[in-house]
Amino acid sequence: MDMADLQTSIHQWRKRWAYQPWFRRYEWLALGLAVWIAVALLFLPPFGRPTPFGAASVIAWYLAGFVMAGVVLSDREKPILLKRTISVSVIFLFFGLFYRYSGTRWDRVQSQFFDFSRMDGVWEMYAQGLLVTLQVAIVAAVLSIIFGLTFGILRTLGNPVLNLFLGLHVDFFRALPLIVSMVLIFYALPFVGIRLPAFWAAVLALVLMNSAYQTEIFRAGIESIPRGQIDAARALGLGPTATMRHVILPQAFKIVIPPLTNNLVSLVKDTAVAYVITVPELLTNAQQAVTWKRTPTPLVLSMFVYLATLIPLIHLTRRLERRLNTGKTR
User: Fold this and answer.
1) Which of 26, 85, 191, 247 has its CA 20 to 30 A from that of 283?
2) pLDDT category, 15, cuts 50, 70, 90?
3) Which residue ranges form the domains of the chain, and what is each CATH number?
4) Is the pLDDT of residue 305 over 60?
Protein backbone atom coordinates (compact mmCIF):
# COMPACT_ATOMS: atom_id res chain seq x y z
CA MET A 1 0.00 0.00 0.00
CA ASP A 2 1.50 3.33 -1.11
CA MET A 3 1.03 6.70 0.58
CA ALA A 4 -1.92 7.69 -1.62
CA ASP A 5 -3.84 4.55 -0.73
CA LEU A 6 -3.11 5.14 2.95
CA GLN A 7 -4.36 8.71 2.78
CA THR A 8 -7.48 7.54 0.94
CA SER A 9 -8.19 4.92 3.63
CA ILE A 10 -7.74 7.51 6.40
CA HIS A 11 -10.06 9.92 4.57
CA GLN A 12 -12.73 7.24 4.17
CA TRP A 13 -12.38 6.30 7.84
CA ARG A 14 -12.86 9.90 8.94
CA LYS A 15 -15.78 10.37 6.57
CA ARG A 16 -17.49 7.25 7.91
CA TRP A 17 -17.29 8.36 11.57
CA ALA A 18 -17.47 12.12 11.03
CA TYR A 19 -21.05 12.31 12.30
CA GLN A 20 -20.06 10.96 15.75
CA PRO A 21 -18.83 13.16 18.64
CA TRP A 22 -15.07 13.18 18.96
CA PHE A 23 -15.04 11.23 22.22
CA ARG A 24 -16.85 8.28 20.57
CA ARG A 25 -14.37 7.89 17.71
CA TYR A 26 -11.94 5.00 17.79
CA GLU A 27 -8.79 7.12 17.49
CA TRP A 28 -9.65 9.18 20.58
CA LEU A 29 -10.73 6.10 22.50
CA ALA A 30 -7.44 4.38 21.63
CA LEU A 31 -5.51 7.47 22.76
CA GLY A 32 -7.45 7.58 26.03
CA LEU A 33 -6.80 3.87 26.60
CA ALA A 34 -3.08 4.35 26.02
CA VAL A 35 -2.93 7.24 28.51
CA TRP A 36 -5.01 5.24 31.01
CA ILE A 37 -2.61 2.27 30.81
CA ALA A 38 0.43 4.57 31.08
CA VAL A 39 -0.98 6.14 34.25
CA ALA A 40 -1.49 2.66 35.72
CA LEU A 41 2.11 1.66 34.99
CA LEU A 42 3.63 4.86 36.31
CA PHE A 43 1.50 6.08 39.20
CA LEU A 44 -0.57 3.29 40.77
CA PRO A 45 0.71 2.16 44.20
CA PRO A 46 2.37 -1.25 44.71
CA PHE A 47 0.68 -4.41 45.96
CA GLY A 48 -0.81 -4.12 49.44
CA ARG A 49 -3.06 -1.77 51.36
CA PRO A 50 -2.38 1.74 49.97
CA THR A 51 -2.24 5.09 51.76
CA PRO A 52 -5.37 7.28 51.64
CA PHE A 53 -3.85 9.25 48.75
CA GLY A 54 -2.95 6.01 46.96
CA ALA A 55 -6.45 4.63 47.48
CA ALA A 56 -7.94 7.84 46.07
CA SER A 57 -5.68 7.58 43.02
CA VAL A 58 -6.73 3.95 42.43
CA ILE A 59 -10.43 4.88 42.68
CA ALA A 60 -9.97 7.85 40.33
CA TRP A 61 -8.10 5.68 37.84
CA TYR A 62 -10.79 2.99 37.90
CA LEU A 63 -13.57 5.57 37.51
CA ALA A 64 -11.77 7.05 34.50
CA GLY A 65 -11.71 3.61 32.89
CA PHE A 66 -15.34 3.10 33.87
CA VAL A 67 -16.28 6.34 32.09
CA MET A 68 -14.45 5.27 28.93
CA ALA A 69 -16.22 1.91 29.08
CA GLY A 70 -19.55 3.71 29.47
CA VAL A 71 -18.83 5.78 26.35
CA VAL A 72 -18.36 2.60 24.32
CA LEU A 73 -21.29 0.72 25.88
CA SER A 74 -23.69 3.61 25.24
CA ASP A 75 -22.75 3.81 21.55
CA ARG A 76 -25.19 1.88 19.36
CA GLU A 77 -22.67 1.77 16.50
CA LYS A 78 -20.04 -0.20 18.40
CA PRO A 79 -19.92 -3.99 17.85
CA ILE A 80 -21.64 -6.24 20.38
CA LEU A 81 -18.47 -8.32 20.81
CA LEU A 82 -16.51 -5.20 21.78
CA LYS A 83 -19.16 -4.20 24.31
CA ARG A 84 -19.23 -7.64 25.89
CA THR A 85 -15.44 -7.73 26.10
CA ILE A 86 -15.36 -4.33 27.80
CA SER A 87 -18.13 -5.31 30.25
CA VAL A 88 -16.29 -8.46 31.32
CA SER A 89 -13.00 -6.53 31.55
CA VAL A 90 -14.54 -3.91 33.86
CA ILE A 91 -15.81 -6.61 36.21
CA PHE A 92 -12.51 -8.52 36.27
CA LEU A 93 -10.58 -5.28 36.74
CA PHE A 94 -12.65 -4.46 39.83
CA PHE A 95 -11.88 -7.82 41.44
CA GLY A 96 -8.25 -7.54 40.37
CA LEU A 97 -7.91 -4.19 42.12
CA PHE A 98 -9.63 -5.58 45.19
CA TYR A 99 -7.19 -8.50 45.23
CA ARG A 100 -4.21 -6.14 44.85
CA TYR A 101 -5.12 -3.37 47.27
CA SER A 102 -7.54 -4.79 49.87
CA GLY A 103 -4.75 -5.92 52.19
CA THR A 104 -6.49 -9.29 52.68
CA ARG A 105 -4.41 -12.24 53.86
CA TRP A 106 -5.18 -14.34 50.80
CA ASP A 107 -3.08 -17.25 52.07
CA ARG A 108 -5.39 -17.53 55.10
CA VAL A 109 -8.48 -17.25 52.88
CA GLN A 110 -7.15 -20.09 50.74
CA SER A 111 -6.33 -22.31 53.72
CA GLN A 112 -9.75 -21.70 55.34
CA PHE A 113 -12.18 -21.71 52.41
CA PHE A 114 -10.37 -23.44 49.53
CA ASP A 115 -8.49 -26.28 51.20
CA PHE A 116 -9.10 -28.95 48.57
CA SER A 117 -6.56 -31.32 50.12
CA ARG A 118 -9.13 -32.32 52.76
CA MET A 119 -11.98 -33.12 50.37
CA ASP A 120 -11.53 -36.90 50.27
CA GLY A 121 -14.94 -38.54 50.39
CA VAL A 122 -16.82 -35.24 50.05
CA TRP A 123 -17.43 -35.49 46.31
CA GLU A 124 -19.58 -38.59 46.80
CA MET A 125 -21.66 -36.66 49.33
CA TYR A 126 -22.08 -33.85 46.79
CA ALA A 127 -23.26 -36.30 44.13
CA GLN A 128 -25.79 -37.87 46.49
CA GLY A 129 -27.00 -34.47 47.72
CA LEU A 130 -27.35 -33.09 44.21
CA LEU A 131 -29.35 -36.16 43.17
CA VAL A 132 -31.76 -35.68 46.09
CA THR A 133 -32.00 -31.95 45.32
CA LEU A 134 -32.96 -32.65 41.71
CA GLN A 135 -35.44 -35.34 42.77
CA VAL A 136 -37.18 -32.99 45.20
CA ALA A 137 -37.18 -30.18 42.62
CA ILE A 138 -38.54 -32.32 39.76
CA VAL A 139 -41.33 -33.92 41.79
CA ALA A 140 -42.31 -30.58 43.33
CA ALA A 141 -42.18 -28.83 39.93
CA VAL A 142 -44.46 -31.39 38.24
CA LEU A 143 -47.00 -31.33 41.05
CA SER A 144 -46.87 -27.53 41.31
CA ILE A 145 -47.62 -27.16 37.60
CA ILE A 146 -50.51 -29.65 37.81
CA PHE A 147 -52.11 -27.97 40.81
CA GLY A 148 -51.27 -24.46 39.63
CA LEU A 149 -52.87 -25.07 36.23
CA THR A 150 -55.94 -26.69 37.78
CA PHE A 151 -56.42 -23.92 40.34
CA GLY A 152 -55.74 -21.26 37.71
CA ILE A 153 -58.47 -22.63 35.46
CA LEU A 154 -60.89 -22.88 38.39
CA ARG A 155 -60.21 -19.26 39.37
CA THR A 156 -61.30 -18.10 35.90
CA LEU A 157 -64.72 -19.77 36.21
CA GLY A 158 -66.09 -16.95 38.34
CA ASN A 159 -67.50 -19.24 41.03
CA PRO A 160 -67.55 -17.19 44.27
CA VAL A 161 -67.17 -20.25 46.55
CA LEU A 162 -64.19 -21.60 44.60
CA ASN A 163 -62.64 -18.15 44.38
CA LEU A 164 -62.94 -17.75 48.16
CA PHE A 165 -61.08 -20.97 48.98
CA LEU A 166 -58.55 -20.65 46.16
CA GLY A 167 -57.92 -17.02 47.07
CA LEU A 168 -57.24 -18.04 50.67
CA HIS A 169 -54.83 -20.72 49.45
CA VAL A 170 -52.98 -18.27 47.22
CA ASP A 171 -52.76 -15.47 49.79
CA PHE A 172 -51.84 -17.74 52.71
CA PHE A 173 -49.02 -19.71 51.09
CA ARG A 174 -47.60 -16.72 49.24
CA ALA A 175 -47.35 -14.89 52.57
CA LEU A 176 -46.08 -17.85 54.64
CA PRO A 177 -42.27 -18.28 54.62
CA LEU A 178 -41.23 -21.58 53.10
CA ILE A 179 -39.09 -22.55 56.08
CA VAL A 180 -42.07 -22.11 58.44
CA SER A 181 -44.31 -24.19 56.20
CA MET A 182 -41.70 -26.95 55.97
CA VAL A 183 -41.14 -27.06 59.74
CA LEU A 184 -44.87 -27.16 60.48
CA ILE A 185 -45.50 -29.97 58.00
CA PHE A 186 -42.63 -32.13 59.26
CA TYR A 187 -42.72 -31.44 63.01
CA ALA A 188 -46.32 -30.37 63.76
CA LEU A 189 -48.43 -32.73 61.64
CA PRO A 190 -47.30 -35.84 63.59
CA PHE A 191 -49.15 -34.43 66.62
CA VAL A 192 -52.43 -34.79 64.67
CA GLY A 193 -51.55 -38.26 63.42
CA ILE A 194 -50.07 -37.34 60.03
CA ARG A 195 -46.45 -38.45 59.59
CA LEU A 196 -44.61 -37.73 56.37
CA PRO A 197 -41.04 -38.70 55.47
CA ALA A 198 -38.68 -35.75 55.27
CA PHE A 199 -38.54 -36.02 51.46
CA TRP A 200 -42.30 -35.78 51.02
CA ALA A 201 -42.63 -33.09 53.68
CA ALA A 202 -40.20 -30.95 51.69
CA VAL A 203 -42.05 -31.72 48.45
CA LEU A 204 -45.41 -30.83 50.01
CA ALA A 205 -44.14 -27.51 51.35
CA LEU A 206 -42.64 -26.59 47.97
CA VAL A 207 -45.82 -27.62 46.14
CA LEU A 208 -48.08 -25.59 48.43
CA MET A 209 -45.99 -22.44 48.00
CA ASN A 210 -45.20 -22.72 44.30
CA SER A 211 -48.69 -23.83 43.30
CA ALA A 212 -49.97 -20.62 44.92
CA TYR A 213 -47.66 -18.54 42.71
CA GLN A 214 -48.36 -20.63 39.62
CA THR A 215 -52.12 -20.38 40.17
CA GLU A 216 -51.85 -16.63 39.64
CA ILE A 217 -49.47 -17.09 36.70
CA PHE A 218 -51.88 -19.41 34.88
CA ARG A 219 -54.92 -17.29 35.82
CA ALA A 220 -53.29 -14.17 34.37
CA GLY A 221 -52.29 -16.05 31.21
CA ILE A 222 -55.80 -17.42 30.66
CA GLU A 223 -57.49 -14.07 31.30
CA SER A 224 -55.14 -12.34 28.84
CA ILE A 225 -56.72 -14.22 25.90
CA PRO A 226 -59.12 -11.85 24.09
CA ARG A 227 -62.78 -12.51 24.72
CA GLY A 228 -63.46 -12.45 20.99
CA GLN A 229 -61.53 -15.69 20.44
CA ILE A 230 -63.63 -17.44 23.06
CA ASP A 231 -66.83 -16.17 21.46
CA ALA A 232 -65.60 -17.30 18.02
CA ALA A 233 -64.86 -20.79 19.37
CA ARG A 234 -68.34 -20.98 20.89
CA ALA A 235 -69.84 -19.85 17.57
CA LEU A 236 -68.03 -22.72 15.85
CA GLY A 237 -69.77 -25.17 18.18
CA LEU A 238 -66.96 -25.82 20.66
CA GLY A 239 -68.04 -26.43 24.24
CA PRO A 240 -66.36 -24.86 27.28
CA THR A 241 -63.94 -27.77 27.75
CA ALA A 242 -62.96 -27.91 24.08
CA THR A 243 -62.57 -24.14 23.97
CA MET A 244 -60.27 -24.22 26.99
CA ARG A 245 -58.26 -27.13 25.60
CA HIS A 246 -57.91 -26.14 21.94
CA VAL A 247 -58.14 -22.33 21.97
CA ILE A 248 -57.28 -20.80 25.34
CA LEU A 249 -54.59 -23.04 26.87
CA PRO A 250 -52.27 -23.26 23.79
CA GLN A 251 -52.08 -19.45 23.70
CA ALA A 252 -51.95 -19.06 27.47
CA PHE A 253 -48.98 -21.42 27.75
CA LYS A 254 -46.93 -19.22 25.42
CA ILE A 255 -47.68 -16.25 27.65
CA VAL A 256 -46.94 -17.94 30.99
CA ILE A 257 -43.76 -19.80 30.01
CA PRO A 258 -41.32 -16.95 30.94
CA PRO A 259 -42.68 -16.34 34.47
CA LEU A 260 -43.30 -20.06 34.94
CA THR A 261 -39.71 -21.02 34.10
CA ASN A 262 -38.37 -18.31 36.41
CA ASN A 263 -40.56 -19.71 39.19
CA LEU A 264 -39.19 -23.20 38.56
CA VAL A 265 -35.60 -21.93 38.79
CA SER A 266 -36.47 -20.40 42.16
CA LEU A 267 -37.98 -23.71 43.20
CA VAL A 268 -34.65 -25.47 42.64
CA LYS A 269 -32.94 -22.91 44.89
CA ASP A 270 -35.65 -23.25 47.52
CA THR A 271 -34.83 -26.94 47.94
CA ALA A 272 -31.90 -25.78 50.10
CA VAL A 273 -34.41 -24.90 52.83
CA ALA A 274 -35.06 -28.64 53.25
CA TYR A 275 -31.92 -28.87 55.38
CA VAL A 276 -34.05 -27.77 58.39
CA ILE A 277 -35.93 -31.08 58.26
CA THR A 278 -32.80 -33.18 57.59
CA VAL A 279 -33.52 -33.99 53.94
CA PRO A 280 -30.13 -35.26 52.65
CA GLU A 281 -29.99 -32.71 49.85
CA LEU A 282 -26.94 -30.76 48.70
CA LEU A 283 -26.78 -28.14 51.47
CA THR A 284 -27.43 -30.72 54.21
CA ASN A 285 -24.57 -32.90 52.97
CA ALA A 286 -22.31 -29.86 52.65
CA GLN A 287 -22.97 -28.92 56.29
CA GLN A 288 -22.26 -32.48 57.38
CA ALA A 289 -18.98 -32.35 55.44
CA VAL A 290 -18.09 -29.09 57.21
CA THR A 291 -18.49 -30.83 60.57
CA TRP A 292 -16.61 -33.89 59.36
CA LYS A 293 -13.65 -32.09 57.78
CA ARG A 294 -13.60 -29.14 60.22
CA THR A 295 -13.30 -26.63 57.41
CA PRO A 296 -15.88 -24.42 55.62
CA THR A 297 -14.50 -25.47 52.22
CA PRO A 298 -17.37 -27.94 51.54
CA LEU A 299 -19.91 -25.17 52.08
CA VAL A 300 -18.06 -22.91 49.63
CA LEU A 301 -17.90 -25.71 47.08
CA SER A 302 -21.63 -26.30 47.43
CA MET A 303 -22.11 -22.72 46.23
CA PHE A 304 -20.25 -23.55 43.02
CA VAL A 305 -22.32 -26.71 42.57
CA TYR A 306 -25.51 -24.64 42.84
CA LEU A 307 -24.13 -22.13 40.34
CA ALA A 308 -23.10 -24.86 37.90
CA THR A 309 -26.59 -26.34 38.15
CA LEU A 310 -28.69 -23.17 38.01
CA ILE A 311 -26.81 -20.91 35.58
CA PRO A 312 -27.52 -23.21 32.59
CA LEU A 313 -31.21 -23.24 33.61
CA ILE A 314 -31.23 -19.44 33.80
CA HIS A 315 -29.67 -19.15 30.33
CA LEU A 316 -32.17 -21.68 29.01
CA THR A 317 -35.07 -19.57 30.30
CA ARG A 318 -33.56 -16.46 28.68
CA ARG A 319 -33.22 -18.21 25.32
CA LEU A 320 -36.78 -19.46 25.63
CA GLU A 321 -38.02 -15.94 26.35
CA ARG A 322 -36.12 -14.57 23.34
CA ARG A 323 -37.61 -17.20 21.05
CA LEU A 324 -41.10 -16.45 22.31
CA ASN A 325 -40.57 -12.69 21.90
CA THR A 326 -39.23 -13.28 18.39
CA GLY A 327 -42.32 -15.32 17.54
CA LYS A 328 -44.58 -12.52 18.80
CA THR A 329 -42.89 -9.87 16.64
CA ARG A 330 -43.24 -11.84 13.43
Assistant:
1) 191
2) low
3) 11-104 (no CATH), 118-329 (1.10.3720.10)
4) yes
